[in-house]
Amino acid sequence: MLQRKKNYLLPAAGATVLVLAFPFLANAFGYTYAITLACYVQLYFIAVSGYDVLFGYCGQINMGLAGFYAIGAYGSAILNEYCNIPIILSMIIASVASCVVGAILAYPCGKLQFHFLTLATIAFGNIINQILSHSPGGITGNFNGMYTQRPSLFGFDMTSTTSYYFFGLVCVIIFAVIKYHVVHSKLGRAFSAIRDNVKAADGMGINVRLYKVIAFAICALFTGFAGSMYAHLVGFISPDTFTQKQSVLFLTMLIFGGTTSFGGSLIGVVALMLVTESIRTLTGYQTLIYGVIIILVVILLPKGVFGELIGLKNRFAKKNRKHSGEVV
Amino acid sequence: MLKFVTLFISATILGCTYGLISLSYSLIYKSSGMMAFVNPDLMTWGAFLGFTFYTLMGLPYPIAVLLTCVVMFCMGFAIQKGVVRNLIKRNVTPMYITLTMFAMGYILQNLSQLIFGSVPRKFDSIIPGLKIQLAGIQVQPEAIICVGVSLLIMALLQFFMNKTKLGTAMRAASMDPMAAESVGVDVSLISGLSWGLSTTVIAAAGILCGPIYSVSMVLGANLGAKAFAGAVLGGYGNMIGAIIGGLAMGFIETFVSGYISSDYKSLIAYIVLILFLFVKPTGIMNERAIQDV
Amino acid sequence: MALLEANNITIRFGGITAVNNASLKVEKGSITSLIGPNGAGKTTMFNCISGVYTPNEGEILFNGKRIDGKRCFQICAGGISRTYQIINLFWKMTALENVMVGFHPRIKSSILHSLLGTRKQVQEEIELRQRAMEYLKFVGIEDTWNMISKNLSYGQQRLLEIARGLASEPEIILLDEPVAGMNTAEKAEFNKLLRRIVDKGVTVLMIEHDMNVIMGVSDYVYVLENGVMIANGKPEDVQKDPAVIKAYLGGDE
Prior knowledge:
Number of strands of chain C: 10
CATH architecture of chain B: Orthogonal Bundle
Order of helices and strands of chain B: HHHHEEHHHHHHH
Number of domains of chain B: 1
Order of helices and strands of chain C: EEEHEEHEHHHHEHEHEEHH
Number of helices of chain B: 11
Oligomer: heterotrimer
CATH architecture of the largest domain in chain C: 3-Layer(aba) Sandwich
Strand content of chain C: 15-25%
CATH class of chain B: Mainly Alpha
Helix content of chain B: over 70%
Number of domains of chain C: 2
Radius of gyration of chain B: 19 Å
Distance between the termini of chain B: 49 Å
Structural class of chain B: mainly alpha
Radius of gyration of chain C: 19 Å
Low-confidence stretches of chain C: none
Strand content of chain B: under 5%
Structural class of chain C: alpha/beta
Helix content of chain C: 40-55%
Number of strands of chain B: 2
Number of helices of chain C: 10
Shape of chain B: globular
Largest sheet of chain C: 6 strands, mixed
């Protein structure tokens, strides 16, 4: 890994400069909307990275991701609105809440076989959506949705999208580091073991039920935080966002880019964001296009874009193998 | 009392519809071990096709129902042969098959919107002028037809699966494809037929409930998601269980919205679904649900 | 006191009795073999010891403590490791990673340390990699460390399973038909490996069909037929036992 880093030092430095300079460039050229999109990319990246831990590494499906996304978004918004908790803190509390809900949901889910796990998580997502639409006392504003504010940190106001972009960047780095640690530790190995062979994992001393719960909780934490970032980015949230389709979108991003990698998640998020933006005007065809994309990915890119690229690279440049001593 | 009878009647209608949908899920689960997430949108298509044949083309209702069933049977057969079988051949993970089903559902839903528009459509009255009194309540003739035909389909399906040669072959093919193949059952053909049968049943549900509820592009999506609760409640994959579970869900949903609040009717369906999965995944009929470690 | 003791084990599946009132004892530092015709209930017995099944009757003692009824992962963490008759590797991982999974119950860093990636945890990971390499070297497949386990040869996969089993630092390792599918050269090599495992201080209990392997290395042999222990003793005694000869000639071996 270290060796590889040296080889890619220059491109990495270039990318860093580009990422840091991006909002200023966008402002200079008048594409301010691009900054908002970049913020979307950041929060989707966090959510998809969390999903990667659950699905890519642990092999567990969660079609109720939108539910956790909603807990993060509404949780943070409500804590800020009704309890006057500062926004950064409310985001953290909301994502921890999402994490706890994820763990609680995962325990009974742990014994369900694939298809029934799919159903249970779909049901969970729908339950959350129903609660948002018919909340007790109308705390979520029901169908009317609710308005949210931009955070401020140590007096540093983040009302401008540019400052929010940098805030998001910090969050992305924090979560990427967490994911890196998860993946490169006994946790990641246990997850992969469960994905590859549940029976053998059990036999090798891995508490399968516990690790499934942890994987779910991590996924819920990431998604919940992404949800709260979303809430304070757009300024308005309504139940329409937190539907089954959002869950499928996350999953599509993940498998489009390719699982078990950072690059894959990034490619998937950026590509689908671009698609979403370019078909924004084609109202009436959006779902159709999504459907076609999913089917194309399943048929043409079973490993995802990143996975296929790695496959190509390995095939053509076998000499690079000697550097790849890292444990995935 | 009047309210109770009214609710009872609408619960029966909804229950029969759920029963048919759950049956179609069960058929696919039995024949290929998959969850048919594409089926709800096929139901919408069934309703729209029925609407086209009956209201737009002016064909008699029974003919419209039959035609719809035939078309949808071919569609289900084509989906199995064209998509599902190819995916299985490629040895993709079950996740991808599930995702493809969702994708097909999206495509079908969007196509139905493009073709039929997003405004809900109303069927013409099937027997104009006919008024039926039942326990002091006026009942639409469409409701009687819906319940009657649904029950008839359920009975026929039971007979077909248990008493006919083809039905037996279908059950055999689902239990042990290799063994079935070795005694001369064309498993590939049979699973195509099972999908066809399943889509026929769900399309029938669409065209039967279409005249009662108005037909829109989310008809299937709305009812279909909740019908999973019925299927699980009865024991996923069990035919009798699907009917019982579907009916039960119809009653639960209708009475909850009648006596508590209509806000909670969908919520209650999903809660039943998740509770049964957690507490009794084998359902009322104790259908074996495969569990992980 | 024997290291592992199974007393009067009975296991039933529905109406079928797979193992009927069978007992065995494994002394510390020995190589004990469990032989018998196909379908005799040997693997069932193993599954029972390793926690896949709970026996209907009888008790299993490990270091004098009851372990029957515990879950697989608890038993593995407690010091009993195993391999499988049908190879059960983590197919998408490399050989090295497979062994590293074996370390799981012995990893000192807590889940929180892993999440935060503390220095101690990172240090431990580096050590684990080195030790995993040592285990691969121990079974003699160190040059395959970076290969995906699915692509290894059959014999290498069997050895990798043993390396993975040893990685959890067990007191006893259960080997289920370890030489099945190996060629003669590999079998000879395996006999040496068995000795090395015992020298390491790990007791071995194994199921085997191959009489040559059994008789050469075993300290003690149990013979199971139709779920009943029909004989036990030193290899040379068991070999002469008329009941064993009958079972084997009548069996498929």
